[in-house]
Amino acid sequence: MKRNQRQARRGRGFTLMEVVVSIGILAVALPTIAGTIGTCSRRAAASGHEARATWLLDGMLSDLRAVVRGRQPATAIHEIAAPASLPASDELFFDGEGVQLEDDKGAFYRCRLEFRPDESSASLIHLQGRISWPAAAREGREQGAVELVTSIVKP
Asked: Which of 70, 102, 114, 146 is deepest in the core (most CB within 10 A)?
């Protein structure tokens, strides 16, 4: 009878040792999981910023190709003018959603466009665009940046 009573009592719950080991495992696992979640969310935000910056820069370069060729794109979302003379540069600012701003107040993205003539052909313009964020950061201290380079043939 004693053996059956011991087995019945044992089946009702956990021993103190089992509880202590379980708490120890949780104490090690939970901070690791929390750190992983934080790292993943930071990387997801950085990927989102990079994707939006690439989209903005690609759109600007497409609009500039159309402007230089003499036809304003019907879907232009950027107020960009072709430079009168080369070399030239322009700086534009955008908020976190990609809306173009008048100046750097409230800007999240800073875009620098550089136009250079081709040395071998007068009808070719080299265009380099660079978007960095945050806009207030000095060159080299940004959280991220995207650069695209293209060439435009003038008509």
From this structure: 146
Give every CB contact of residue 150 below 8 A, 6+ residues apart in sequence: 61, 65, 126, 127
pTM over 0.85: no
**Residue 65, Cβ neighbours under 10 Å: how many?**
18
Environment class of residue 2 by beta-carbon count within 10 Å: exposed (0-12), middle (13-18) or buried (19+)?
Answer: exposed
Q: Are the C-beta atoms of residues 110 and 95 closer than 8 Å to each other?
A: no
- Whether the Cβ atoms of residue 112 and residue 130 lie closer than 8 Å to each other: yes
Instruction: In whole angstroms, give the CA distance from residue 130 to residue 147.
Output: 4
Q: What is the pLDDT of residues 7-19, one digit of tens each?
A: 655 567 889 999 9
